[in-house]
Amino acid sequence: MPNQNRRDFFKTSLALGVTVSGLASGKLKAETPKVHPEDRMGVLVDTTVCIGCRSCEYACKVAHNLPTGSLESYHDDRSVFNKERRPGEEVLTVVNEYKSNQEFPIDVKVQCMHCEEPACVASCIVHAFTKHKDGSVTWDTGKCIGCRYCVIACPFQVPVFQYSKALQPNIMKCDFCYDRTSKGLLPACVEICPVEALTYGKKVELLQVAKGRIKQKPDKYFDHIYGEYEVGGTSWLYLSSTNFSNLDFPKLGEDPAPATSESIQHGLFRYFVPPVALYTLLGGIMWLTKRKENSEEEE
Ligand code: SF4
Ligand code: SF4
Ligand code: SF4
């Protein structure tokens, strides 16, 4: 879908969101599963260690049967760092490089953060997303109706809709290698990282590790663990030598992000908007967007 039409879809959908959420009055709290943090797994990304080799991008693609070139081509091609990239239809994680006033540039791996209170889960009206006990957030192709609420709701702009697949588009995002970790394997990106910039483990222990590194080397680390508190906490945690705003991390509060999307859902149910009416509305939006796209292509 051309960018213009994609923007149109978002604009229309956001207008819908605002209209419907306007129906809901007062604060409505999330009903996300509460699991003791002891159960949570996570990954600590130490950007001061990452060398930008992009082996993680390669391994992630291999693990998810996505098209990939040779591993060497990932190491050799530094031109990708000329512009900032985002996870996309065929790449669930990307590494971006930032110039710094230190000796080396700073490389930052980007993927789904696996939020403790995920906006994607809360916004999905057919419960196609699942927040698992270990913290992973996965998506079920069989339930998705393609409404793309999750795409709009995510505070990190992670889920990507497969516009290129007309008949059976998927929502693409990092699944924390759920198939691998449930068999006792490491996430593919963690396993391949040659410098141990990525550490997989219990989130409570990773937080202790991160705090220990900051305490031991206060000159090396910026005193903040990104993901400890942002949007209620995330399974992926980051350390950096500089303020995270210099690395394009969104500045987010500690409140979970689902509030807006939940208002939409609760507004719908509070005022008894039946699901079939909602699906018709969403179908209408998609049809209008597609129609506009076709007419633009004809022109
Ligand atoms: S980063 Fe976005 S897609 Fe990932 S769990 Fe959080 S809200 Fe969902
Ligand atoms: S955890 Fe798995 S899906 Fe997520 S970025 Fe790493 S390799 Fe990709
Ligand atoms: S594999 Fe490790 S060192 Fe290489 S880019 Fe990914 S996180 Fe950085």
Short note summarizing the structure:
The protein is built from 10 helices and 9 strands.
Any overview of this molecule?
The protein is α+β, with helices and mostly antiparallel strands and 299 residues long. It has 2 domains: 48 residues, no CATH class; 241 residues, Alpha-Beta Plaits (2-Layer Sandwich). 34% of the residues lie in helices and 12% in strands. It has 10 helices and 9 strands. A 3-stranded mixed beta sheet has the order 8-1-9, covered by helices on one side. A hairpin with a 7-residue loop joins β2 and β3. The protein is globular. The N terminus is likely disordered. It binds iron/sulfur cluster (3 copies). The site of one iron/sulfur cluster has 13 residues, from α2 and α7.
What is the CATH architecture term of the largest domain?
2-Layer Sandwich
DSSP E strands, number = 9
Structural class: alpha+beta
Beta-strand portion reads 5-15%
Q: How far apart are the termini?
A: 15 Å
Side by side, the strands of the main sheet go: 8-1-9
Radius of gyration (CA) equals 20 Å
Mean pLDDT equals 82
Helix content: 25-40%
Instruction: Provide the list of bound ligands, each named once.
Output: iron/sulfur cluster
Instruction: Report the total helices.
Output: 10
* CATH fold group of the largest domain: Alpha-Beta Plaits
Q: What best-fitting shape do the alpha-carbon axes yield?
A: globular
Low-pLDDT residue spans: 1-35, 266-276
What is the N-to-C succession of helices and strands?
A: HEHHEEHEEHEEHHEHEHH
CATH class of the largest domain: Alpha Beta
How would you sum up the major sheet? 3 strands, mixed
Domain module tally: 2
